[in-house]
Amino acid sequence: MRIGIDARELGGHATGVGRYLGGLLREWSASAAARRHEFVLYAANDIPISLDTRRFATRVVRGSGGTLWEQLRVPRVAARDHLDVWFSPAYSMPLTLRVPGVVAVHDLSFVAHPEWFRLREGARRRLLCRRAVDRARAVLTISAFSKRELVERLNVQPDRIHVIPPGVEAAAATVTSSVEPNILFVGSIFNRRHLPDLIRAFAPIARKRAEASLDLVGDNRSYPHEDIASLIAQQGLERQVQWHQYVSDEQLRQLFARARAFAFLSEYEGLGLPPLEALAAGVPPVLLDTAVARESCGDAAVYVPQGDIAATTRALERLLFDEEQRRRILDARTPVLSRYAWPEAAARTLALLETCADTNGPAR
Q: How far apart are CA 97 and CA 93, in angstroms?
């Protein structure tokens, strides 16, 4: 079987979707079950990932990697490759490609909260996602929460939706050895992740503890725009808050190794991988109390109400200084993390692709 894959997110500074696809590809490259298949990766630029080129061919289709690239240029190239099935790891797919397709929809933030997106960008995302979901033989998502969103907001039949959680890799040691009051946030900066609230919640800790620090890792994609640098300056935290717009994998491992608490105040996620990665690194998280946060992390987190700055400060202090609380959270992480394994995610995704290639009807 020949599996075509939209691999454009692997290029450049790979973030959420690129890391997700990279995890699947690494497992497929090592999997005996995947050796009977060929994979063809379509990207707008060279792919910085080492794979067996005999089984993982790359088609570099030069272009912007945007909608016209996906809908016009890629189908012309892919049509010559005699594919059996197509996998799109994020939200949309070439609608004219005449092979069965599986599309991954990680969340529906652009449907649930159109105010977080510029008018044209939000409309583009909604149109392409709706058309892709209708066109695909099966829809893959990463949580029960996102499955409910697909059913309720896009009217997708439940038996067409397959919940396959991704794997989680430890970014540092099994348990952090840091004793300094260091807090870490990792993720693209969106309004829904409430970075201003985190900075304000950290300020009282910083004023009491000169050695306390907060590291923010992620580029600013907020809309309406949030001026993170100005807020840090207004709070007088330039010395204790470091904003890294992008870091290498090695730098990220170092940041996790020195962190004592993780903060992720997101009100909407499809799953929320950064807190799980923090748990894998032995760093207990503070999260907003949402349905998907409870689904993903269970008892292995401290939860706070949205907008409650004082409660967030207290939660951070407990994870920084209360050894019993820290131990309770870290003791609860093993059953949580057992649900997020790359070998299982890759095996189930491959089985879904095989099913879709072998049937004329929707995958069950």
A: 9
Separation between Cα atoms, residue 88 and residue 129, nearest integer Å: 11
The string over 96-119, giving b where at least 16 C-beta atoms fall within 10 Å of a residue's C-beta and e elsewhere, is ebebbbbbbbbbbbbbeeeebbee
Q: If DSSP codes are grouped into helix, strand and coil, which group holds residue 26?
A: helix
Gyration radius of the chain over CA positions: 21
* pLDDT confidence of residue 85: 98
Tokens of 322: 């209360």
CA distance 347 to 24: 9
Q: What is the pLDDT of residues 25-68, one digit of tens each?
A: 999 999 999 999 999 999 999 988 889 988 999 999 999 999 99
User: Token pair 């959270």 is at which residue?
Assistant: 329
pLDDT in tens, 197-226: 999 999 999 999 999 999 999 999 999 999
CA distance 108 to 91: 9
| Residues 6+ away with beta carbon under 8 Å from 213 | 180, 181, 182, 183, 240, 241, 242
Q: Are 62 and 44 in contact (CB under 8 A)?
A: yes
Q: For residue 23, give Cα distances in angstroms to 38, 72, 242, 287, 298.
A: 17, 28, 29, 25, 24
Q: For position 15, what pLDDT does the model report? A: 76
Tokens of 178: 């840091």
Non-local (6+) Cβ contacts of 175 within 8 A are 282, 330
Instruction: Give the relative orientation of helices 309-321 and 323-331 as an angle to the nearest 10 degrees.
Output: 90
pLDDT for position 360: 53
